[in-house]
Amino acid sequence: MNVYLFELRRSLKSAAVWTAVLLAAVIVLIAAFYPVYYNSRADLEAILAGFPPEFSAAFGLAVNDIFSFGGFYAFCFLYLSLMGAVMAASLGLQIFAREKQGRCTDFLLTKPRSRFVLFFAKLLAALTLLVASNAFFLPVLAALYAAYGHGEASMGRVVLAASALFFTELVMLAAAVAAAIFARRIRSVSGTATAIGFAGFILTALHSILKEDALRYITPYKYFDPAMAFSAGHFEPRYAAAAALATVLLLAAALTRYCSADTRAL
Amino acid sequence: MANVIETEKLTKFYGKARGIIDVDLQVAEGEIFGFIGPNGAGKSTTIRTLLGLIRKTSGQAHIFGLDCEKDKVKILADVGYLPGEIYYYDHMRAGDLLRYSASFYGKDCTARIHELSEILELDLGKRIEDMSLGNKKKVGIAQGLLHSPRLIILDEPTSGLDPLMQRAFFDLIRHENERGATVLFSSHILSEVQRICDRVAIIKEGRLISTQRIADLRQNAYKRVSIVAQAPLEAFALPGAADISVDGCTARFIYRGDINALFSALSRYSLANADITEPELEEIFLHYYADRGETV
User: Fold this and answer.
1) Which side of chain A, N or C, has fewer Cβ within a 10 Å radius?
2) Can you give the pLDDT at residue A35?
């Protein structure tokens, strides 16, 4: 419990800042831009028709979808998930590479706690911060839908669509935990977290351009499609399963390594 | 008396690189045990294996009769460890670090933290990254002792401490020992080990080559002697002197034997200067084992 509380306290500020950025982004994108898009449909359709299809695809622009609340949110989701991914990766790296960065691994690992317990205390702290962040995000998105939506989906579907961010963050958290544990050294948490986030973004762009189904299995921002949650009330099971599998495998590999690796002397 | 630390053929290889080989170590309850060897000899590898920071390749390692890998958590509840190099979390004050450290032991260590900070003259409100090496070391000492452990493992503990603080540190360790704590004291400085330990184990190139009582080691004490005579020294010789080099008025040698006999022999010369220092551990090993006809 002491490690959990310690990690929670140490990363609270970073999580709060990221949550504020995410909330500001979703509020600005939906409250400021969606009504403008919605009211200028004819003009925008003409503009978007002039874009090369690959360009539109890479940036998540689907002309048919973008004017519904769900479609517009799905378009925004690419950028929100990038931010969420960087936040999750940042938390994972901060929490799991804290001792490596401070060169104080000996301090923690010579305390009377098993490495298994330490791993789960840290993971629980990261999860708590992500859950807390999404506890703000979900109601904000629901409120935005209530204010700017056009009644095309039930509130349950809105909440499901909003949860896509949390599930995507879980995958990226697992990737960051594995990176923190397997890397010999993490020079910069923010730099590495941004790199992890952008790697996901590039995979998403590649998938959107190439339309390769196989590529989607390794494209974290495409595991949970909020447009589908809005329209069908569920995520695509095979990609959700791929996300769950990737998360479990990354965490299992990280846990195995954390519990068994020799701690290098300074 | 029961052994607090006991290893049997303890071996650690880092891939193909040698760590330690067949180390048999016994540290009895209540003693201050020195563990000495040159840098890279395997002292830290032995300690890190005992603490479960690294996994042994083969052999056995027990503390309090418990297996160092399987029963690591139980063992660590009663162990205080001071690493050779002190690093802690960024942006943390000494007091916060010590309170966090205490939170692992399930007992109120507040009074002890204040007692240690007074003895060590440690400012608990200061950020650790703003501290000098010596003050960081004090934080390390306090965090290693705050839970009154039964076994204290010190890895090169005095580097960075000024002589006055070294004295306070040795007094503190002696006090902990009188309280009943067993101490494993690793160092590459022989005089430091001689100052406080009951017995000493010598490790070289990963192998434990000797375990001696400090009193026995003192009898075999080596000194590096350098004299400058007022006239050129010709055919300089002295019983107990080895590795003699003469350069004009200056003679340098390693001496083992009665120090009074040394002064008596040197009184035959008219000296301008004399310097008697602790030889490097490496030199002691070379001469000690050359005397015994062993290869090191």
Assistant:
1) N
2) 86
Residues of B in Cβ contact (< 8 Å) with A260: 55
Distance, in Å, from the CA atom of B15 to the CA atom of B55, rounded to the nearest integer, reads: 12
**Residue A53 CB contacts under 8 Å (≥ 6 apart), including other chains:** none
Contact B174, B11 (CB under 8 A): no
DSSP code of residue B57: S
* pLDDT of B284: 66
Element (H, E) at A93: helix A69-96
Optimal mutation site among A9, A94, A107, A263, interface B, most CBs of chain B within 10 A: A107
Contact present, B186 and B41 (Cβ < 8 Å): no
Tell me whether strands B199-204 and B32-36 are parallel, antiparallel or unpaired: parallel
The encoded tokens of residue A214 equal 């196989």
CA distance B97 to B104: 12
Confidence of residue B295 (pLDDT cuts 50, 70, 90): very low
Closest CA to B5 of B18, B23, B19, B22: B23
Tokens coding A10: 């140490």
Nearest-CB residue to A109 (from B53, B74, B87) = B53
**Can you count the helices (H) and strands (E) in chain A?**
13, 0
Find where tokens 């200067």 sit. B273
Q: Where are the beta strands (DSSP E) in chain B?
A: 3-14, 17-28, 32-36, 58-63, 66-67, 79-82, 151-155, 182-187, 199-204, 207-213, 222-229, 241-247, 250-256, 271-277
Six-digit token string for B40: 């890279």
Query: Distance between CA A206 and CA A217 in Å, rounded?
Result: 12
Mean pLDDT (whole number) for A75-103 = 94
Q: What is the pTM for the complete model shown?
A: 0.85
- For residue B88, give the chain A residue with the closest CA: A104
